[in-house]
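User: Can you predict the 3D structure for this chain?
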Amino acid sequence: MESKAQQSTSRLDMLKWLVVFILIAVGVVGNQYFSGESVLYRVLGLVALALVAAFVALQTDRGRRFATLLKEARVEIRKVVWPTRPELIQTTVIVVVFVLVVALILWGMDSLIGFLVQGFIG
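Assistant: Here is the predicted structure, written as structure tokens:
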């Protein structure tokens, strides 16, 4: 059985998600309603609404967990060892050559099968 604190938190989170949904709906409807206005003003309005909606969403339990996930992902990205430029060029050349060889093999097989089928059919 849920405690009252958890139940009130989940209801409050549902209310926050409802506010996020309403903000998004206002952005969509407002963008359509003000379609005659400058694109700059509409984009600025949408960005402002998106920031407010993101702020409200981050106040929920799932939003906080998502923010934690992003922080942890950022830490993991810093641990990645990126290839040097020569390694990158060498790997890219290997991949391009391999793709070309496989493409030629497939083209040859397709041509051979097409020739055989055409000879068989007449």
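The chain has a mean pLDDT of 92. DSSP finds four helices and no strands in the chain.
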